[in-house]
Amino acid sequence: MGDSGAPEFRSVFTCLADPYPANFDGESICGGDHFLMLVAFG
Length: 42
What we know:
Layout: H1 7-17, H2 33-41
């Protein structure tokens, strides 16, 4: 982390790139968001 641009956008891309980020800082951000996206796009 450390981007003052768009952390939400980064989290979305991280979830899309890796649905289950193990050692990713986005794990805390898309903890449940990635699940919603999987249900919506899955």
